[in-house]
Design brief:
Blueprint (H helix, E strand, L loop, with lengths): L1 H16 L3 H20 L3 H33 L9 H4 L9 H5 L13 H14 L4 H17 L5 H7 L15 H20 L4 H25 L1 H7 L2
Helix pairs in contact: 1-3, 2-3, 2-7, 6-9, 6-10, 7-9
């Protein structure tokens, strides 16, 4: 509906005004893929309306933000983004030693940008139960994987070298901020995973599945902390 499209435009405005143009740019990329992907699965009359309202949200938001966008662009022209080097672009990637901490945030004392172990297993449950029938699971699973690979940045140098040549994208350093999309996508998938468990016929299958999930979380955490923590600290000082 038009009202929903207008509300979405307001959300776009508030996100840009919060101050992180890089996260906004990544969000708009996801929104464009969101529109393209879901349009494929909609019937023809609804598809046209969906695409029109989706583009309306983004266009209306950009129109309201136009004075701030122009001012931000004038500021960017004074910085190094207009002629970025690869060294500038590759800064603040997610390092190899941070990958285990994505699942266990306190493995090294603390780590930003994680969904935790239980939510990750719930996301896996979404694929286990819903992947063949739920288009949302397919889309957000793809977003989570692609965004995580992009977040690795210079850790995955061949891919990062290719991304460095993408116009506008190469304005921004700190590819680790892609973890915003990763966490968002995995949070949605965790919700689908819990929903799939709740769909089990009767209380016993649900309790059994939940016990399995919690047990996997506890075992994975215990093994990682007590058996591999020192090895990981040696491997990734």
């Amino acid at each position: 509906r038009f009202k929903c499209a207008a509300y979405a435009a307001i959300a776009i405005v508030f996100q840009f005004l919060s101050g992180s143009s890089q996260v906004c740019f990544y969000t708009y990329i996801v929104l464009l893929f969101f529109t393209a992907f879901y349009a494929i699965y909609l019937k023809s009359p609804i598809r046209k309306k969906f695409i029109a309202y989706s583009l309306l949200s983004l266009s209306l938001g950009m129109l309201i933000l136009l004075p701030q966008i122009v001012a931000s662009y004038e500021l960017i022209k004074m910085g190094p983004q207009m002629a970025p080097s690869y060294e500038f672009f590759a800064q603040y990637s997610v390092p190899r030693d941070a990958i285990p901490a994505f699942f266990l945030p306190f493995l090294y004392g603390g780590f930003d940008g994680t969904v935790g172990t239980f939510a990750f297993f719930l996301a896996v449950a979404a694929f286990w139960r819903e992947e063949k029938t739920n288009v949302h699971v397919k889309f957000w699973g793809l977003i989570a994987v692609v965004a995580f690979l992009l977040a690795l940045g210079d850790t995955l140098r061949p891919l990062n070298k290719i991304m460095f040549h993408v116009p506008v994208y190469n304005f921004f350093r700190g590819s680790g901020k892609h973890l915003v999309e990763v966490c968002f996508a995995l949070s949605i998938l965790a919700g689908f995973g819990m929903s799939a468990l709740l769909k089990e016929n009767g209380a016993k299958p649900y309790r059994r599945a939940l016990i399995v999930m919690l047990s996997l979380t506890l075992v994975f955490s215990a093994v990682s902390y007590f058996l591999f923590r020192e090895r990981l600290n040696v491997l990734f000082p």
